[in-house]
Amino acid sequence: MTNNSLILERLHKQKLCFSGFPTPLQKMPRLSKVLGGPRLFVKRDDMTDLAYGGNKARKLEFLFADAKNNGADVMISVGAIQSNCACMVASASRRLGMKPVLVLVGKEPEVPDGNLLLDKLLSADIHFLDDYGPHVDEYINKLANEYRAKGHCPYVIPAGASAPFTVPGYALAMEELINQFKKTGEKMDAVVCACGTGGTQAGLIFGAKLLDVTAKILGVSVFATRADASNTIVRLVNGAAELFDLDLSIAPDDVAVFDEYIKEGYGILNKDVTQALKLVAETEGIFIDPVYTGKAMVMLMDQIKKGNFNKDDNIVFFHTGGLPALFLYRSELGKI
Ligand SMILES: Cc1ncc(COP(=O)(O)O)c(C=O)c1O
Fold first, then answer.
1. Residue of the nearest CA to atom 1 in ligand 1?
2. 292, 320 in Cβ contact below 8 A?
3. Which fold has domain 73-152?
4. In the sheet that 25-27 helps form, which strands lie side by side, from edge to edge?
5. Given the CA of residue 160, which atom of ligand 1 is nearest to it?
6. Which of 62, 166, 200, when mutated, tests ligand 1's pocket best, judged by the most ligand atoms within 8 Å of its CB?
7. Which residue's CA is the nearest one to ligand 1's atom 16?
8. How many whole angstroms separate alpha carbon 16 and alpha carbon 234?
9. How close is the Cα of 322 to the center of ligand 1, in Å?
10. Using one digit for the tens of pLDDT, what is the confidence trace for 208-260?
């Protein structure tokens, strides 16, 4: 590829700059030692500031910049009751003097906890819907129209803040990571991240292509099958390439996603995840979450155990946040 620095410069210019970047890249020597495996690093995207941090901040920079350009003053986000994305949208909205409106799917609990508690502290206008289906989009359209009728300018955030338009968020994270590795003089062999709506892994792949990075980018799906997750990521990467007029494309076989760590299902804790959370905390003093990073860590530990990494490999684990939900698992986690 030619002129990649110009492309990256263009992406930088569209950012809004919430604070917190670059996020730290830290070594995890005690965890590496216990696992008897490769050199492990953690990229602290749980320190991106908004609502206790997480991966959505990098994507939201692009969406909020667009919203501002369009004169928006009301930000509408949809997700599950404990959506990390919705909570970060609410936090970013308040940071920028906009009104957060959240459409949360699931039954409203008697006592708000985790992200929902934070949503309430942020005084988001919260609407609860019982289940997912086409009626969710209809409800959002109706809400947006109601706000328009009151003289507001609403902006709807896509689910998980993933869209071709936000893929550059994690391309820039890849650039950040490469610059951090350059300073240490070490090579990077693989990057591990949780995969939900696919935007994080898509961005890392997009960035790796632009920067000629050969490290493996390994995603760990938390709900979609490998085929579905790969297709989503292909659509995001190729969509971003089209949007930025780049001669770049990938196919499903270019995407490495594991789906065998979903186990009992999305958000369901199991023994392996509990042990992973505990081991990372007791070796490195770092908390990971039960829904996303916990499952990604189980994959990393399992692949090390299976001998699928070399001892001198440098592996980066992306900590993508999700910590407010940790406390919802108190009854299971409290037993260990
Ligand atoms: C904490 C956390 N990690 C990882 C992910 C997955 O990111 P993506 O949706 O970009 O695949 C999410 C998505 O909701 C998340 O909240």
1. 322
2. yes
3. Rossmann fold (3.40.50)
4. 25-27, 39-44, 314-319, 190-195, 216-221, 256-258
5. 9
6. 200
7. 84
8. 26
9. 8
10. 999 999 999 999 999 999 999 999 999 999 999 999 899 999 999 999 999 99
Active site residues: 83
Determine the atom of ligand 1 nearest the C-alpha atom of 59.
Answer: 10
Assign 96 a pLDDT band (cuts: 50, 70, 90): very high
Structure tokens at 156: 């709807």
Nearest alpha-carbon partner for 291 in 81, 76, 49:
81
Two domains, one topology: 4-54+163-333 and 73-152: yes
Nearest atom in ligand 1 to the alpha carbon of residue 193 is 4
Q: What are the structural domain ranges in the chain?
A: 4-54+163-333, 73-152
Residue-level pLDDT at 14? 65
pTM for the structure as a whole: 0.96
Q: What is the predicted pLDDT for the residue at 1?
A: 43
Answer whether 102's CB lies under 8 Å from 124's CB. Answer: yes
What is the fold, at CATH topology level, of the domain defined by 4-54+163-333? Rossmann fold (3.40.50)
Is the minimum distance from the CB of 221 to ligand 1 under 6 angstroms? Answer: no
Mean pLDDT value of segment 147-168: 95
Q: Return the pLDDT at 147.
A: 98
